[in-house]
Amino acid sequence: MNFSPLATLDPNTSTLLFGVEYRLSQRIGVAAEYGARFRPLQLTGFGLTKNKNDYHYYKIKAEVRYYLPPIDKHPHQEIYMALQPFFVPQTYTRYNDNYVVNDIHIGYDRADVKKTVTGLDFKLGFIWHYGPSWQLEVGGGLGIRHVSVAYQTDREFLEQRANQFQVNMFNQSEKPGSGLDFDVATVCKVGYRFGLPRR
Fold first, then answer.
1. Cα dihedral angle (92, 93, 94, 95), rounded to 10 degrees?
2. First-to-final CA distance of the chain
3. Is the confidence at residue 127, as pLDDT, over 70?
4. CA angle 92, 88, 38 (to 5 degrees)
5. Fewer CB near the terminus (10 Å): N or C of the chain?
């Protein structure tokens, strides 16, 4: 079982993220993580959570790992490569906001927003074992993410084209639609191993 402390500091989707891993063999492992919304330790939102009312989200991650052969000079260290798909659904409500589509500002009084982030990362990680049970894990990787944003609001407001005097340039929300982007993964976990000692 492991805990990811840096996930609580995520400026957009701060979570209490816990996970478990099961070793299918000495070289192959499978893992899963779940994180629920957690904001008390969030240092700053950098404006990312501004005007997101009734904000709800969670994180789900799965992982398949391949552990490299051990290095004799570092018997208490393991190195692995992994593929990790992830899923982060979000819902929130915005008031008196606007977004831009095709260089046109569209204003609304209220919008219920559904945002879904899915992706796949390739990671490289390092695990240091302390005693028979405790371990520290760090790593990182790169991947791709798909972001989808959908608005539900009164049609008359959704199609209202705001002129330049009605637009708040510093309080714009994500525009509706979907697209692909790069993803950067970071790993920092504290774990406790149950069962037999590591071989």
1. -160
2. 18
3. yes
4. 70
5. C
Question: What pLDDT is recorded for position 63?
Answer: 97
Supply the pTM of this predicted model: 0.82
What are the two backbone dihedrals, phi and then psi, of residue 197, each rounded to the nearest 5 degrees? -60, 155
For the segment 68-97, what is each residue's pLDDT rounded down to a tens digit?
998 777 778 999 999 999 999 999 998 888
Amino acid, single-letter form, for residue 25:
S
User: Can you tell me the distance from the alpha carbon of 2 to that of 193, in angstroms, rounded to the nearest whole number?
Assistant: 9
Distance of CA 8 to the CA centre of its chain: 11
By CB atoms closer than 10 A (0-12, 13-18, 19+), residue 71 is exposed
* Beta-ladder partners of 30: 22, 64
What is the pLDDT averaged over residues 5-34?
91
In the chain, DSSP finds a helix count (H) and a strand count (E) of 1, 8
Here the tokens at position 157 are 């407001």
Tokens 């991947």 correspond to what residue? Answer: 143
What's the one-letter identity of residue 27?
R
Lowest mean pLDDT among 9-18, 149-158, 165-174: 165-174
Strand pairing report for 2-4 and 134-152: unpaired
Round the average pLDDT of the chain to a whole number and report it. 84
Rounded (5°) CA angle 158-50-60: 90
For the chain, where are the alpha helices, taking DSSP H only?
Answer: 155-158
